[in-house]
Amino acid sequence: MRIKYLSLFLCRTMLLAATCGIHFAAFAADTLRVEGGKISGTVSSDGRVSIYKGIPFAAPPVGDLRWKAPQPVKKWNGVRACNAFGPSPVQGEPVPFSMWSAEFLIPKTPISEDCLYLNVWAEKQGKTSAKKPVVVWIYGGGFVSGGAGCAIYDGEATARKGVVFVSINYRVGAFGFFAHPELTKESGKNASGNYGLMDQIAALKWVKKNIAQFGGDPDNVTIAGQSAGSMSVNCLVVSPQAKGLFNKAIAESGAGFGRNYPSLKQAEEAGLKAAEKLNAGSLAALRKVPAEDILKNVTTYRGPITDGLVVPEPIDAIYAAGKQNPVVLLTGWNQNENAIAKPKTAADFQAQYNQQYGPAAQVFFQHYPAQTDAEAAHSQNELARDMSYGVQNYSWAKAQAAQGKPAYLYRFTRKLPATGIYAQYGAFHTGEVAYAYDNLRFIDRTLRPLEATDDQIANVMSAYWVNFIKTGNPNGRGLPEWPAFNANAPQMILLGEDIKAAPLTEQPALDFLIEQAARR
Description:
The chain has about 525 residues and is of the alpha/beta class. About 35% of the residues lie in helices and about 15% in strands.
């Protein structure tokens, strides 16, 4: 279906929203009782959406609670004003870089170890309103950065479509993924290191217990994330610790299939080396090291650990054994995920992969040709995308299909209009998020002069996402048909100027990469 024919669908939706909005006056959000005490919030400008920011879902993980599983939230007296995001987790200063301008980054302040807060957007409702489906958003950032306060993660637009939107914080870097033999012993569960994932699980348990207060259905929860958030979603789907906390998953550009997450022993060894570097001879001493010193000196932690508890085995093995938590899946990746700054020459690229693949290199170069430097540069970008994201999310869809579980595959193809240094990037990593959650209003139009086409794409994408959150199927009236994934004849929905279902043309290349990786 050509995108120009979707304009009527967009206009009708916008008119309805505007018509509803003019009849409301702004007022305070209802005071609610949640785990820990009473909270108040704010409302949208038209009074239609209640907004609660900075709700604590666990005790601050500071002092003796550093590198511990999240502990119960501390109770408070009176009514806690939840009208601002809680601090983002400890990380480097958020400075625009590569393809990411400020709206893709966390606020510069506050940043703190005391970071376990979540946020809720929900339509105001009457006593008889039906329970609404819930989506819990998990941010990306390579497991070393990110936070729920990022502008494009705002939940108001999704809430207006009948979904309770929750965004959560979790610990990152050495604060979220640090293992040590003493921590393993202290845990009483013979595991350590996956504190960031434990935070996500604690937030989901909070949702299960409390979301009904906001009009949400605790039995209709979708977990959603992008990049490291998508990899987190994959970890949660295979984690026995997260059983029963959700029934659907949205995974944008990231998964853990074929990834060699470090074992607990490997992670503990890295922890011992880090402690030595910090001159901390005990766990007590480690917990007294200033956060700034840990951030500066402990830089080897890159995410999940196969710890035997939260992630008990490699993700492939868990799916192969059918031991994952049952979900319906919406997953995919972007057309131009990576942009290699200095690609190899054709000669160097050919030499590298002739050596790596031997006789199989002939097949490799059929998928990633390199007869000229320009062709080799293009192939390197395609290969980087496919190896980092295509293989991952395609493998997940295949694993779902093998288990007889529905999956819906997409490719985001819209090259965002841009100026200056941003013009060199196409449908870049994270570029789809603002479309999927109808948040283009937060995009800096001086850097990225978006067009009417972008609003139309966002309207359709967000409709797909909301339909999936509500029912487990993205399809709906007025939308191009999105076929479920079929491993024998895989199709995906292309999300760009032309929104349509199409064959997964990269299937032979992705299968080749998967096969070669299995042989190593």
